[in-house]
TrEMBL record, chain A:
PANTHER family for this protein: SPERMIDINE/PUTRESCINE IMPORT ATP-BINDING PROTEIN POTA (PTHR42781), SPERMIDINE_PUTRESCINE IMPORT ATP-BINDING PROTEIN POTA (PTHR42781:SF4)
Residue intervals of the ABC transporter domain: 9-239
A Pfam match: TOBE_2
Protein name, entry field: ABC transporter ATP-binding protein
PROSITE patterns per the UniProt record, alphabetical: ABC_TRANSPORTER_1, ABC_TRANSPORTER_2
Gene3D superfamilies: 2.40.50.100, P-loop containing nucleotide triphosphate hydrolases
Length: 374, 272
């Protein structure tokens, strides 16, 4: 939906070295105007470094960064059209809430009453109306976060940079803030760039996500594409839960359809869109599927259109709304002495009973939900 | 053994210890207001004569002025140098940082008499005349490590992103330092000033070596101890100094606590 918008941030051939450490490797990235963009990856993958490069806190070793079409090499952080929400929020503890929010307006020529009005408006936007006179150090984590947001947004930046802004909040608060951030982004319409290590958070909030490993972008896609068609095994493993079964490629036709013999599932034909783009070298091919794409059949279930496989329940993990089952698929041990059980998830809808450990059961699945990694 | 500690012996020890520490100091005002010239019990009666004599003594007033000049100058200088060093050591990484900081802190543990002697030799060799200026120089050398120790604690307890946030919000680097860092380390700065002031005010060896003919309070007091007649006046002077120290310390602690309460912090580089 943001395909046609103009580019807001363009990184080309970006490299960053800290001494011998290669923090960013050949980053090419375009973030469009009004996009909610996430940089996702494990700690040390370079996502925060990339954010700080965009903010102007880090120099780059080679390459170029453009914001709104302008080269940024010689523009320091205080002159860039970006503002940042820090992981620690960096609220100035010696100032009041209003003074914190008004901090960036100090160099603005507007009158005091105009500034006060802007501050009040910003506070209202983040749901802190009437908090202006409070001491900033006395706020809760969620309130500090809102002050940090108001303080950055009051300057009407072209890009708002968010460095793991929700990691310090408890789960309930985090989920609430996720929704509020999405709403806020739609309301102000500016580009948000979020750094997070929480894949769920990235999926919930972003228009597009760049998954990073070891200073490289491994995949750049929308949330659905990222989840359904991971580019390689590492991305698949990092985003959500993915089961992997060893597979042997037995044939490939002219259209690129590949026939594989999957351990425990048997022979399937997979079209090109279900085959990962990147090859992982000389590892054995694997077929992956998400826990929710397999269904545990009750004993009385009639045969469906889908394929069926017999299995034994190895472990049951009950989550209230969901139950996770670890299953040993019949025939999966064939030639794979250490075959791991696969994990599937079932929603605990009305009338569905939780099954016991050790039960012999059947699972239904569809070749359409498999992804081949080779 | 019972779960509760029986502190009988330890309590006596604590009381004796405190008595040993403070009894001599309590004697100061006692004899400062005593009418007799001999420092011995029984007390002869109340008088403020010694305080009047002290105030009327020109050499003593000169010593006091000198000492205050030296203490104020060297505490300000040492604290400024301390701010630079503490900020550099907490905020930046640079080659040779460890050894450099080590050498700056060394005067804390060097025998003062060695420092004073070598300074004297160097100053005389360089043909610099001894004055209160040379004492200030020596005191800055002595006080800076203490100032750094206090200020490093204050600086290192700051979140690095506070400064970045100010910069990100459009301030210049100096603006970010002035508006955010300085107010937050102010309690540490006040502590550093107070510590340096106190160290300089009662420093004897360097003042004795480097002051030339100028008296400072400690050297003056030392010179007067030879004259039994002067002792009550010294007692009066001591009383004033103790009172002044207590007031200063209390003031410093008050400002530190108020500062901390204002930012919701608990203790950054305090004295007490």
């Amino acid at each position: 939906m943001t395909e046609d918008r103009k580019p807001m941030i363009e990184c080309t051939g970006l490299n960053k070295h800290y001494g011998d450490y290669h923090a960013l490797r050949d980053i090419d990235l375009t973030i469009r105007e009004g996009e909610f963009f996430s940089l996702l990856g494990p700690s040390g993958c370079g996502k925060t470094t990339l954010l700080r490069v965009i903010a102007g806190f880090e120099d780059i070793s080679s390459g170029a960064v453009l914001i709104d079409g302008k080269r940024m090499e010689d523009v320091p952080a205080n002159k860039r059209p970006t503002n940042m929400v820090f992981q620690s929020y960096a609220i100035f503890p010696h100032l009041t809430v209003a003074q914190n929010v008004a901090f960036g307006l100090r160099r603005d020529s507007r009158s005091k009453s105009e500034k006060d009005a802007l501050v009040e408006e910003a506070l209202q936007m983040v749901g802190l109306k009437g908090y202006g006179k409070r001491a900033a150090h006395a706020l809760s984590g969620g309130q500090r976060q809102r002050v940090a947001l108001a303080r950055a947004l009051i300057l009407k930046p072209k890009v708002l940079l968010l460095d793991e802004p929700l990691s310090a909040l408890d789960r309930k608060m985090r989920e609430q803030m996720q929704v509020e951030l999405i709403k806020l982004q739609r309301q102000v319409g500016i580009t948000f760039v979020l750094v997070t290590h929480d894949q769920e958070e990235a999926l919930v909030m972003s228009d597009r996500i760049a998954v990073m490993f070891e200073g490289r972008i491994a995949q750049l896609d929308g949330p659905e594409a990222l989840y359904a068609r991971p580019a390689d095994r590492r991305v698949a493993d990092f985003i959500g839960v993915m089961n992997f079964l060893p597979a042997d490629v037995t044939g490939e036709d002219a259209e690129g359809n590949v026939t594989v013999d999957v351990s425990g599932l048997g022979e399937v034909v997979l079209p090109p869109k279900q085959i990962s783009r990147l090859t992982s070298g000389d590892e054995r091919p694997m077929v992956g599927f998400r826990p929710e794409t397999m269904t545990l059949l009750s004993a009385s279930a009639t045969r469906s259109q889908e394929r069926e496989t017999g299995a034994t329940i190895d472990e049951v993990v009950y989550y209230g709304d969901m139950t996770y089952y670890d299953l040993r698929l019949d025939g999966s041990a064939r030639g794979d002495g250490n075959a791991r059980p696969v994990r599937i998830s079932m929603r605990n809808v009305f009338g569905r009973e939780v099954q016991d450990v050790g039960t012999r059961t059947r699972v239904a699945w569809s070749p359409g939900s498999l992804v081949l990694f080779r | 053994m019972k779960g509760r500690m029986n502190g009988g012996g330890l309590r006596a020890y604590a009381v004796l210890y405190l008595l040993f520490l403070y009894a001599p100091i309590i004697l100061l005002p006692l004899f400062a207001f005593n009418a007799g010239t001999i420092i011995a019990f029984p007390l002869k009666g109340f008088t403020t004569q010694w305080f009047q004599e002290m105030w009327g003594n020109p050499t003593l007033r000169r010593a006091l002025t000198n000492s205050l000049t030296i203490a104020v100058s060297s505490s300000i200088l040492a604290t400024c140098l301390g701010i630079f060093a503490a900020r550099a050591s907490t905020r930046f990484a640079f080659p040779g940082k460890g050894p450099i900081m080590g050498f700056i802190m060394l005067p804390m543990v060097l025998p003062e008499i060695i420092v004073a002697m070598s300074l004297l030799v160097v100053l005389l060799g360089a043909g610099i005349e001894l004055s209160i200026l040379t004492v200030i120089l020596g005191h800055v050398l002595m006080c800076t490590p203490y100032a750094i120790a206090v200020l490093t604690t204050a600086f290192s307890s700051l979140d690095k992103s506070l400064e970045e946030a100010a910069f990100d919000l459009g301030e210049t680097r100096w603006g970010a330092f002035r508006l955010v860092i300085l107010p937050l380390v102010m309690p540490g700065i006040i502590s550093a000033l107070l510590i340096s002031f106190t160290i300089s005010l009662d420093e004897f060896i360097i003042a004795f070596f480097l002051a030339g003919n100028e008296p400072t309070l400690p050297t003056y007091i030392f010179s007067q101890l030879r004259f039994p007649k002067a002792i009550p006046v010294i007692m009066a002077l001591g009383t004033v100094l103790v009172a002044l120290s207590i007031v200063l310390l209390a003031l410093g602690e008050y400002f530190r606590r108020r500062g901390n309460a204002r930012i919701g912090a608990t203790g950054t580089g305090g004295l007490v």
